[in-house]
C-alpha cells in the first residue's frame, strides 16, 4: 500500500519527464495550418438545461440547487474562457470548427448506439442542441454534427482538415472526460498536433475534470491555460 | 469549494443512475458474435522491461526498485487475470484478438506521430514487443499491430470484426488510461457493445488506473471483475 | 489479336458464370434494413447546366446543341426512372438517402483535392447544386454533402447506415463511370449488399455508361432494370 | 443513335480538355514523398493458376488453351513492365508497398463479404497468394494484406502513408477494372496525387482493361507508360 504511493510518485515523475521532451514547447500557431476545435459548446451543458430537464421529469429541483448552482458557476467560467479564445482566434485568422451533438433525422434514428442506449437523443430543435451564446458560429464557419462521443468517429472532420491543409489543433469544450478526451486521443493518433486549453474545457464536476486531465494532459496533447494561449495569439503577426 | 463537493456527489449519483439503466445488465456472451480483445499485453509493461531499460540508459536502478517492485506486483496480478480470461474464452469458443504495439518496418518509419514524438519506436524484434507469456497467441489467432494509442485508428479491426460478424467485445489489457481507454471509446462509438474487465486491465500506477476508470467505467462500457466474467462464461452452453 | 478475341469471349463467360452464382438472385427488399442511395441527382448533370455554363464562358453553344440535346434526352430518361424508383421506395417505406456534391464552406475551401484540381468547386447556392426536381428530398429525409467522387470516403454514410441497421442498398444516380462506380465498389467492400438499377443511372455519354457497366455490373453489385425493381417493390407486403 | 455518336465525340473532347489542365503535367517524382503501390501482383493472375484451377475442378483445359495462352502472354508483358518499374523505383529510393489478397485467418473467416460471396477465399499458403517472381518483396519492404477489392477500405494504407509523409503514388498491378480502379479512386478522393502506369496494369482481358481505362485514365489519375516513367525516374537526382 505504501509502496503504491512510492510507485504513484515514480510514475508522475516518469510521465512528467517524458512530457517535457514532447510538450515542453507548445505548438506553433499559424493560421495557415491551425484550427480551433470547439466540442459540444451547446446549451445541454448549462445549469438551465439541467434545471429545466429535472423539472420536466417532475423532480423537486430545490434540494439540487446548491449542486446545480456550482455546476453553473464552473461551466460559466469555462464558457467565458472559450469565448475569449474563440474571439482571439477569429481575430488572428485561425479558423474555428464547431462540433455539436445533434442528429440529422427528426426522429434521431441516426443516433449512434452509445447515445441511443443512454437515451441521449438530440433531434434538431431539441432543448440542448443550441450553441451557447458565448460560442455562436458565424455565417460561413464550419458546423459539424455528431451522435456519439468522438469527433473523429462521429464526423468527417479528419477529411475536412486534410482538405483544408490543417494539421495543428487547439481544442476546447465539453466534457473533458468524455467527448473532449475521445477527440484529443483520436486526433493525436491520426497525426495532428494538439494543444488543449485546460481551463477552456470542463466536465460535469471539478472532480471528473481533474481526474480526466491526468490521462491526457501532456500525454496526448500539450496543455496551456487560456491566458497563456491568448498571450501567444496576441504575439501572432 | 464546499459546493464543489456537493456537486461531485450529485454528479456521481447522476452517472450511477444513468449507468444502471444502460449497463445494469451485462452484455450477453455468445461465441457467435463476441470477441475477446487483448490490448498491448506485451513485455513492455513488465517490471523487467523497465529495469533493463533504465540500466541500458546508465541509470542507477537501485533507488527505483521499491516502485518498480510494486509495479511488477500490480502488473503480475493483472496478467494472471488476463490469462484466466483468455483461457476460459478459448475454452468456450470466444475468439481472442491480440493487438500489440509494433511497427511494420525495421526502422519504424511507419510509426504514428504520437509515438514518434515520444520516441516510442518498436520495430519487430525490439525488447518490449513480445507478448507476455500469460497471453501468448496460439497458431491461427488474430494478431494486429499498431504504432499509436488507439486500436480503431491504428488497426483494421473495425473491418475485421464486421467480416467476422462480431458486435460484442470483452476488453482487457494495458494501459487503462491510455490505449485501453482510447479503444473502448472508439469501439463503443462505432456501435459495438463493450464489456471491460476492470481487474484484467491496469495502468503504470494504481492511481492512474483508478482515475481513468472513472471516465469510462459504466459510461463507455459495462464493467465487471474477472471472477464475475468467469462465472458467466462457465455457465455458457 | 485474334486470340485476344478468343480471350475476351472466354473472360465474358468466366465472369458471367461467377456472377450467376452470386447475383443470380437479387437482394431481398426489406424496408427494415434497405435504403435507396441517390448519388448526385443534381442539376449539374442536366442539359441546361451545360448550356448555361458554356454560354457563361463565352462559347458559341449552337454547334454543340445536337450533342447537348442528346445528353438532355439521355439524362431525362434516367431522371424519369429515378423518380419512379424514389416514389415507389417512399411508398413502401424504404428510406431514401440523398447525396450531392456541395462544399460546406462558402469559398469551397473544404473541397477535396480531386475536385479542387479540376476546378470543380460547388459552394452552397452555386448553379448545379440544386437537386433535380425528379428527386427533391422531402422534409426529414437524409441529405449528405461531399466534395469528392466517392460517397464512402466523402461522407459519414457508413456510420449512418450502421446506426440505422441498414445493410442492403439500392443505388441510382450519376455518373455511372465516376461517383456511382466509386460508391458501389466501396459499399460492397464494406460488406453491404448492393443492387444497382442499370437504367436509373447514367454517364455523360452512352458510351461511357456502357463501358463502365462492364466493370461493376454483376461483379460489384447485382443489377436490374427500373421495371424489374418496381415489380419486386410492388409485391412487397 | 447518330446523335449519341455526336455526344460521345463531344464528351471525349470535354474530358480530354479537362484532363489536360489537371494531368497535362505528370506528378513530380520525389523519393521523400512518393511511393510505388503494387496491387495484387500475385500468382492468381497467371496462366498457370487458371490452368491448375480448371484442372483441379475436373475441367478439360485443352479447348481453353488458346484463350489462356493469350492471357499468359498479356499478363507476362505487364509483369515485365512491373518488374522494370519496381527495380528502378528501388534504385532511386522510391519505397514500394506490396498489397495482396490474402486472409489473416487459416479458415479465411476474416474475408470481406464481396469475396466471401464469390467464393474467393485466400488463406495464407493457398495457391495464388504468392507474389509473382517479378515483384517479390525484399526484406523490410511493406506488405499489406486485404480480403476485398479496395486497398483503402481493405488495409490501413491511408494511415501508413500519412505516417510516412507520402502524398504521391505510382500505381501498378491487377486488375485494372477491379482492385486497381477501386484503389485509384479512393486514393485520389483522399487527396493523394496518383500516377498510373497504363501498361504496368492489366485486366483478365484486353477488352476489360481498355474499357476500364476510360473511366479512370486522366480523370482519377495521371497516366503514363512504363517507358515514360522510367525515363523520368532515370533523370532523378
TrEMBL record, chains A, B, C, D:
Domain of life: Bacteria
Gene Ontology molecular functions: hydrolase activity
Residue stretches making up the Isochorismatase-like domain: 34-227
Keyword Membrane part of the UniProt annotation: no
Keyword Hydrolase on entry: yes
Keywords (A to Z) from UniProt: Hydrolase
Annotated Gene3D superfamilies: Isochorismatase-like
InterPro entries in UniProt: Isochorismatase-like_dom, Isochorismatase-like_hydrls, Isochorismatase-like_sf
Family: Belongs to the isochorismatase family.
Protein name: Isochorismatase
Annotated organism of origin: Hornefia porci
Amino acid at each position: 500500500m505504501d509502496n503504491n504511493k512510492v510507485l504513484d510518485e515514480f510514475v508522475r515523475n516518469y510521465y512528467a519527464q517524458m512530457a517535457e521532451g514532447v510538450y515542453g514547447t507548445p505548438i506553433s500557431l499559424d493560421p495557415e495550418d491551425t484550427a480551433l476545435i470547439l466540442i459540444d459548446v451547446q446549451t445541454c451543458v448549462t445549469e438551465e438545461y439541467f434545471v429545466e430537464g429535472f423539472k420536466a421529469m417532475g423532480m423537486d429541483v430545490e434540494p439540487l440547487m446548491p449542486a446545480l448552482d456550482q455546476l453553473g458557476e464552473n461551466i460559466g467560467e469555462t464558457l467565458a474562457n472559450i469565448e475569449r479564445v474563440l474571439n482571439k482566434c477569429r481575430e488572428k485568422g485561425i479558423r474555428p470548427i464547431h462540433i455539436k451533438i445533434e442528429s440529422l433525422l427528426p426522429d434521431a434514428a441516426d443516433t449512434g448506439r452509445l447515445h441511443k442506449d443512454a437515451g441521449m437523443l438530440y433531434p434538431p430543435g431539441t432543448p440542448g442542441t443550441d450553441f451557447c451564446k458565448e460560442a455562436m458560429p458565424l455565417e460561413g464557419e464550419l458546423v459539424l454534427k455528431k451522435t456519439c462521443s468522438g469527433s473523429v468517429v462521429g464526423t468527417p472532420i479528419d477529411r475536412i482538415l486534410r482538405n483544408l491543409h490543417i494539421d495543428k489543433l487547439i481544442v476546447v469544450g465539453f466534457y473533458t472526460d468524455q467527448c473532449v478526451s475521445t477527440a484529443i486521443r483520436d486526433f493525436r493518433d491520426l497525426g495532428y498536433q494538439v494543444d488543449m486549453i485546460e481551463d477552456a474545457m470542463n466536465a460535469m464536476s471539478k472532480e471528473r475534470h481533474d481526474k480526466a486531465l491526468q490521462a491526457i494532459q501532456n500525454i496526448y496533447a500539450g496543455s496551456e491555460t487560456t491566458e497563456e494561449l491568448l498571450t501567444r495569439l496576441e504575439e501572432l503577426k
